[in-house]
Write a structure and sequence with these properties.
The complex is a heterodimer. Chain A is of the alpha+beta class. In chain A, about 15% of the residues lie in helices and about 35% in strands. Chain A has one helix at about 155-180; strands at about 1-5, 15-25, 30-35, 40-45, 45-50, 50, 70-75, 100, 110-120, 120-130, 140-145. In chain A, the strands form 2 sheets. In chain A, strands 1, 2, 5, 7, 8 and 9 form a 6-stranded antiparallel beta sheet that branches. A 4-stranded antiparallel beta sheet of chain A has the order 4-3-10-11, with no helix packed on it. The radius of gyration of chain A is 24 Å and the shape is elongated. Chain B is mostly helical. Chain B contains 22 helices and 3 strands. Chain B has helices spanning about 1-10, 30-35, 45-60, 70-90, 95-100, 100-110, 120-145, 150-170, 175-180, 180-190, 200-205, 210-215, 245, 260-265, 270-290, 295-305, 310-340, 345-350, 355-375, 375-385, 400-425, 435-460, and strands at about 195-200, 255, 390. Mean pLDDT of chain B is about 90; it is low at about 1-20. The chains are: A alpha+beta, B mainly alpha. At the A-B interface, strand 2, strand 5, strand 6 and helix 1 of A face helix 6, helix 8, helix 20 and strand 3 of B. Strand 6 (about 50) of chain A pairs parallel with strand 3 of chain B, so a sheet runs across the interface.
């Protein structure tokens, strides 16, 4: 199993997480949450990823997954012992798994996505829980580093001060010139 | 336009004037004329564009760092950048009329504009500044990563907005657009090939006392890019903002379709720096193509090892060669051609450099056609994600084979357009030498550029997102 973020590593602010499980038994549900450095908990509601078909673009992979860096690998979660379940109730309560493909091991590939807003940098913990009908839940955890999101403060400062400074200069100078002209 | 000028010149010499057939005027369509004269034009387009641009800059700077997941990257580099040369070919510099930079300047000037005259150095060296900025940005793109990095793209746009605000506060009209904006320089060149022109009717203008088209009236400002339609002979700066259509009291302005590239055949005052930009673009597109090919990385690694382990130095070396090669080839052609035409290298380069523009335009469109058609669905996926729908799949709209065929057709048309333009330019040589012999050297160079580009398009390219 792997979890990808839409940035090269997780950042403060909005993140979109993609959960990929190679061999996923039908009838199970995946829950994703993140636990922050101050023990804050952010639940990530997962939504099945609809995979469309289209012309061969010569790159052989889906548009975004090909370029998404793996953020956290969670070994041991693929093919876990709940794989014997034969139910097909959908993974996240959306009534189906349009992204599910049969795998070599007889299970299905599972891909789902969810958004979360992380409020602080530091080391967070990714927690994935898989619930099955016949077995107890299986939980896996992995640490991730969350860095400050957005542009560099120096850049923001430079552009902000330049624009603000010149605008202020223009307004003041214009007012003075109009005053002198009266 | 050339025909109209001719009739004026003949008239001033007291020669008999034969009535010239005026091109079809799109403003004879009442609905179009009413729309262009209304206060809704171009505001109905400019403000939505400014809002979208603001969102794009926001999402580039604060959104996902993976380009494939960033809507700003998709909209900028997969949609807008590939469409902009097509837009320029069809509508000239109309994009400049609705560009968010132009709208920002207008807004800034309403509250803080000092309206100072543009400094003479900017007027004198404006095109060279544009040339330098264009080369610098292309170099920075590869060294710092602008296109493939949402943050890099956001930084570039933010810096440009800063420049726009500064020039908007200090100088009158849209000095940024006319003298600094690299995209303005690019569109200025491409618009000369466009299928649309705005011109005044000299016979009507001869009796005009108001010159409102340049100065503006109480409702509408004058030409934002310092053009005087009465004497305007090319489409390099006109951005079809319709201010002159609104302000002209005599309905002198016409908007006419024309044969693409026609303007390039009769350049009255060719400028070396404009031709230089046209030739440099060949190198820029060349480097854009080469860096997306599979042999690029191994080549860079080898060269980096040879140049003190510096990737920046290695890229700079290749970049300089890529810029110098087309310049050198056109320079050699100009040397031979100029000798036949009895003109200096400088004059010949300035005249024939314009012939490269159709090829530039075609290769630019062909290169970006790959990004639009091979990565276009990423826009849909990212827009869907914006509205809460998670969907993915192949990014391509068409198969790579189909895209390649379209690229070859586009390059073929560009090469044909460039060859024909060079032929027409040779035909207008002032000296009575063998005009065909002034044409051959440039024909050889254009053919070579065409072959190189066709070959590059046969190789598999990397994606932007």
């Amino acid at each position: 199993m792997a979890i990808h973020d839409d940035s090269f590593s997780a950042k403060t602010g909005a993140n979109t997480f993609t959960v990929e499980i190679g061999d996923f038994p039908a009838g199970h549900t995946v829950h994703l949450k993140l636990v922050g450095p101050q023990a804050q908990v952010v639940a990530v509601p997962l939504q099945d990823l609809l995979v469309l078909e289209g012309p061969d673009d010569g790159h052989g992979d889906s548009a975004d997954m090909a370029n998404m860096p793996g953020m956290a690998d969670m070994p041991g979660m693929d093919g876990h012992d709940t794989a014997s379940s034969g139910h097909d109730s959908g993974s996240t309560g959306h009534g189906g798994t349009p992204d599910a493909h049969d795998t070599a091991n007889g299970g299905q590939a599972y891909t789902a996505r969810g958004k979360a807003v992380l409020d602080a940098p530091g080391t967070w913990k990714v927690v994935v829980k898989i619930d099955g009908d016949h077995d107890g839940p299986v939980t896996a955890e992995a640490p991730i580093d969350v860095h400050p999101g957005g542009p560099a403060p120096l850049y923001l400062g430079f552009t902000g001060v330049s624009m603000g400074g010149f605008l202020t200069y223009g307004i003041v100078r214009r007012r003075n010139e109009r005053g002198a002209g009266r | 336009m050339a025909a109209s000028n001719k009739s004026i010149q003949e008239s001033s010499k007291g020669l008999r004037v034969t009535p010239q057939k005026q091109p079809y005027n799109l403003l004879s369509l009442p609905w179009l004329k009413a729309f262009l004269k209304s206060r809704w034009f171009p505001a109905i387009l400019t403000y939505p564009t400014l809002v979208l641009f603001t969102y794009i800059v926001y999402t580039l700077l604060w959104g996902p760092e993976a380009p494939s997941a960033n809507l700003g990257t998709s909209l900028t580099w997969v949609l807008w950048w590939p469409l902009i040369p097509v837009f320029m070919f069809v509508l000239g510099r109309f994009w400049c009329a609705i560009c968010p930079f132009a709208t920002t300047i207008d807004l800034v000037q309403k509250v803080a504009g000092l309206g100072r005259p543009v400094p003479p150095f900017l007027k004198k060296y404006g095109i060279w500044i544009i040339d330098a900025v264009f080369i610098l940005i292309t170099w920075s793109d590869h060294v710092f990563g602008i296109v493939e990095s949402p943050r890099g793209s956001g930084y570039l746009l933010g810096l440009m907005v800063t420049g726009v605000v500064v020039t908007g506060v200090l100088f009158e009209r849209r000095a940024w657009c006319r003298y600094v904006c690299f995209l303005g320089g690019l569109s200025g060149n491409y618009s000369r090939s466009s299928a649309l022109e705005l011109r005044a009717t000299p016979e009507i203008c001869a009796t005009c006392k108001t010159q409102n088209c340049y100065k503006g009236d109480e409702k509408t400002p004058g030409c934002p890019v310092f053009e005087f339609p009465r004497t305007m002979q090319n489409s390099a700066n006109c951005n079809l903002c319709a201010n002159c259509i609104k302000t002209c009291p005599n309905d002198s302005i016409r908007l006419s379709p024309r044969t693409p590239t026609r303007e390039l055949w009769f350049m009255a005052r060719p400028k070396f720096e404009e031709s230089f930009l046209a030739v440099v673009i060949v190198g820029i597109v060349l480097i854009q193509n080469v860096t997306m090919l599979s042999f690029w990385e191994p080549t860079m690694e080898t060269l980096t090892g040879m140049l003190l382990g510096s990737r920046t130095l290695a890229f700079t070396a290749i970049f300089l060669v890529a810029m110098a090669l087309p310049f050198g080839l056109v320079a050699v052609a100009s040397k031979f051609s100029g000798a036949e035409a009895g003109e200096s290298f400088h004059q010949n380069f300035a005249r024939f450099g314009y012939a490269i523009i159709p090829l530039d335009l075609a290769v630019h469109i062909a290169h970006n056609m790959f990004h639009l058609l091979a990565e276009g669905k990423s826009i849909y996926y990212n827009v869907a994600a914006l509205f809460g729908s998670q969907v993915t799949g192949p990014a391509a709209l068409l198969s790579s084979g189909t895209i390649q065929v379209l690229q070859f057709i586009t390059v073929g048309l560009g090469v044909a357009g460039a060859m024909f333009t060079a032929y027409k330019i040779a035909g207008h040589s002032k000296t009575e030498g063998n005009k065909l012999r002034t044409f051959w050297p440039h024909l050889a160079v254009i053919t070579l550029f065409g072959i190189v580009n066709v070959y590059l398009f046969t190789l598999p390219m990397m994606h932007r997102v």
